[in-house]
Amino acid sequence: MTQPTDTADTLDAAAAALNQESEATGLSEDQYRRKMQRRQEVQQQRIADRTVEKGLVIVNTGNGKGKTTAALGMVLRSLGHGYKVAIVQFIKGAWEPAEKAVLAQWPDQLTFHAMGEGFTWDTQDRDRDTRTAQAAWDTALSYIRNPEYRTILLDEVNIALKHGFISVEQVLAGLAEKPAMTHVILTGRGAPQALIDRADLVTEMTLVKHPFREQGVKAQPGIEY
């Protein structure tokens, strides 16, 4: 494939414009075909222009559901490629999560630590929650520093940050120690701005409707746990 002549920003702008145009109604078959051909050309150029490979800092935050679920999708992809993965849960731990039962099928690739003791309103002990979170962070840091692990999921670490159980300075310093190709995923609502600024990929889950709040539907197996 020939190298693109346009800049990445120009290609991105062209892709966005073509995407918006393709959604317009009233196009003839020929107009639609020519627009799709142009979109294909631009997309191929955009892909060719991206040559950098690096380990990412990924943040899933926001009030909507799906932060951990999305992160587990990346975990499964990493396992499928044969990479070693570590998961450290900062809040959950009093439960026996269904995810752990499934992921236990990769004992040679996956290390799983459920180190929390449940939600803060369950423990009702700030000092104990702080000690637990600090122990979880020490465990997480051992994997972040280990180049054998390609993907590390720090589940609900943003909650620990939000409550001050660990500091954002600790986390940022730890992320600075990760090997170049290691991906670190940090989940939980309320991610601090300093972490968002450091991250390569940030997704905010927006709550639109929730059956617990609007219909009184309790947490159900296969959906919440």
On the 0 to 100 scale, the average pLDDT is 86
- The assigned structural class equals alpha/beta
SSE pattern: HHEHEHEHHEHHEHEH
Overall structural domain count: 2
Shape: globular
Oligomeric status of the shown chains? single chain
Sequence of strands across the biggest β-sheet: 3-2-4-5-1-6
Q: Which topology of the largest domain does CATH recognise?
A: Rossmann fold
**Biggest β-sheet, characterized?**
6 strands, parallel
- In CATH, the homologous superfamily of the largest domain goes by the name P-loop containing nucleotide triphosphate hydrolases
Integer-rounded radius of gyration = 21 Å
Task: Explain how this protein is built.
With 225 residues, this protein is an alpha/beta fold. The chain folds into two domains: 8-49; 57-214, P-loop containing nucleotide triphosphate hydrolases (Rossmann fold, 3-Layer(aba) Sandwich). It is 46% helix and 14% strand. The chain contains ten helices and six strands. A six-stranded parallel beta sheet has the order 3-2-4-5-1-6, with helices on both faces. α1 (8-22) runs antiparallel to α2. The N and C termini lie far apart (46 Å).
Features:
14% strand, 225 residues, 10 helices, Rossmann fold, alpha/beta
In short:
The protein is α/β, with parallel strands linked by helices and 225 residues long. It contains ten helices and six strands, in the order ααβαβαβααβααβαβα.
Topology:
Layout (H helix, E strand, L loop, with lengths): L7 H15 L6 H21 L7 E5 L5 H14 L3 E6 L8 H6 L6 E5 L5 H4 L2 H19 L4 E7 L1 H6 L5 H8 L7 E5 L5 H6 L2 E4 L6 H4 L11
Parallel strand pairs: 1-5, 1-6, 2-3, 2-4, 4-5
Helix pairs in contact: 1-2
